[in-house]
Specification:
The protein is α+β, with helices and mostly antiparallel strands and 158 residues long. The chain is 39% helix and 19% strand. It has helices at residues 3-26, 61-74, 77-83, 86-95, 134-139; strands at 103-110, 114-121, 127-133, 145-151. The protein has a four-stranded antiparallel sheet with strand order 1-2-3-4.
Length: 158
């Protein structure tokens, strides 16, 4: 084996180790961006503070939806009213908040204008989808969450 091949193999090994170390330090892929309007990460455990404007509000669709879920779960009507349109606030109120602390984000799907952020309730299996205006979320305009849909897991897909 020539010295050049050994040196390249060693360099590639070091690069691979450094790449893996970067992934473990960031808690995910080293190439992920938290600034995208749709933020494709999952899990409602996303820190709203780390994805916030200087005014403290989230800066992407999933951040807005996560903040709304957290406010709803905490019973903070004032925050719910800030993040969601009156129709969404009414739908959340009509649904009730018996299991409002049990939602986990499972998906985010977006286009240029709007993103859908989907949650699953750990207690009931129900699905919750918020539609979020990406431009409003990106610029901190209120309210950014403009539509909500609940779906019982027993209902057939349409």
């Amino acid at each position: 084996m020539s010295t050049t091949i050994r040196n390249r193999a060693a360099a590639l090994s070091l690069a691979a180790i450094a790449g893996l170390a970067g992934v473990s330090l960031t808690g995910g892929t080293a190439l992920a961006s938290t600034n995208s309007p749709t933020d494709s990460g999952s899990g409602a455990e996303v820190s709203v503070a780390s994805d916030a404007h200087s005014d403290g509000y989230p800066r992407n669709a999933s951040g807005y939806a996560d903040a709304l879920v957290k406010a709803w779960g905490a019973g903070s009507d004032a925050e719910v009213n800030e993040y969601a349109t009156p129709g969404v606030v009414e739908a959340l109120s009509e649904h009730g908040d018996e299991h409002a602390t049990q939602w986990d984000r499972i998906a985010v799907d977006g286009s240029a204008d709007s993103s859908s952020v989907v949650y699953k309730n750990k207690a009931t299996g129900e699905l919750l989808t918020f539609d979020v205006d990406n431009e409003a979320a990106t610029h901190g305009d209120h309210p950014a969450v403009h539509h909500v849909h609940f779906k019982d897991r027993a209902q057939p897909s349409r």
